[in-house]
Fold TLC domain-containing protein.
Amino acid sequence: MLDPVGPPPRWLRAFVEPYALWLNSPTFPDHVHEVLLAFVVYQSIHSFISPWLSPILFPKSYPYLSARTKLNWDIHVVSLFQSVVINALALWILFVDQERSSMSAGERVFGYTGACGFIQALAVGYFIYDIIVSTVHLRMFGVGVLFHAISALWVFSLGFRPFVNYYAPVFILYELSTPFLNIHWFLDKVNMTGSRAQWYNGMLLLSVFFSCRLIWGTWQSAVVYGDMWNALQQTWSANTAHALEGPVDISANVFTDAGALCIDETCARANAEISKFKEFTTGGVPTWLVVTYVASNLILNFLNYVWFYKMVETVRKRFRDPAEGAPAKADDKSPEKAVKLEDLAQEIVLEAAAALEQEEGAPLPRDLPLTREQISLATDSALENLRRRKD
C-alpha cells in the first residue's frame, strides 16, 4: 500500500536525504514531512488548542486546576488525540494493505511499504514531542519518562533503515488501551471519580490492556522474533560461505515477484515498493540490530506483565482486606447485599485502573484545588482509598 499522504516536497527531500543516508535511514526522506507535520500538530494541541478549548468545554473544571495539573491535562489531550488517530490508522492499514499481507518472512524484516512508513512517521513525530516535553519538565516527570520516550523513538526509527517496517502498525496497537487510560484520568479531574462512567471505562481499560498488550503483544513478539532469527541465520550463512569473496546480495532470496499478478498500475507500484530499498539491505541484518530490538521488546513486554500483575494484586488485596464492603455470602440474595456487591465490584475495577495509571507514570490527582478535595465519604473514589492504604 502506497503512502496515503504522498511524497514530500522535492526541496525538503533533497535537504534531508544526505543526513538520512549518513544515519542509514534511507526511507526517512519519504516521510520527513509527515514527521514534521505530526510534531507540529501535537505541539499545537499542547500549546494552543487544549488551553483554548478546554476552558470552553469544561468551564467548571479546567480553569480551577493548578498550573501543574493544567500542564498534565494538556499533555493528556495530546496523548488521547494521538492514540485514537494512530490506532485507527493502524487498524485501517492492517485490514486494507494487501501488499503488506502478502509479504514473506524475509520481506517482513527487510521489506517496505509507504503505509507502514506513514505509521512510523506519526509515532516518531509524537515521541519527538514527548522527548521535548519530558526534557523541559524533567523535574516534574523524572528521568524514567525521558528514557522511555528516547527508547520508543529509537525503536520506531529503526523502521527507516528499513527494518521490520511491516510490524509498525502491529506494535502500535499496544496503545489501544491508552485512550481509556486518558479518559480515566480526565474523569477524575472533572469530579467524576467513582462514577458509573469511570467504572465502565475502567472495565474497558483492563480488558483492552490484557487483550492487546499481553495476548496480542506476546503473540506478535514471538512472530517477529522468528522472522528476525530466520533473517539473522540467512545473514550469517551468506557471510560465512562467501567470507573470502566479499559481500553477498541476499535480496534474491528475500523478495518475491508479487507484482506479476497485478492488473493495474497502483498495485504494481505498491508491490514494487516492497523491494524499493533492497540495495540498503543486501548485506542482511546486523546482529547488534536484532539484539537491540529484541532486548527493547522484551523490556516493554516485561513491564506490561508487571503492570498487569500490580492490577491483579490490587484486586486480591481488596478481597483479602476485611473492609466494610466485604463480599456477601453466596446464599444472601437480598437487594441490599446485591447493591453492596455491585459497589464493591465498581471499587475494585477503579482501584485496578488507578494502579495501572500509577504504574504507567500518569500523575494521580493529588494536585486538585482544595475545594475539589473536600468531598463527602459517600462519593469518595476508589483512587483515594487506594492512596490512603498505600500511605
About this structure: The CA atoms of residues 94 and 169 lie 7 Å apart. DSSP finds 16 helices and no strands in the chain. The chain has one domain: 10-390. The radius of gyration is 24 Å.
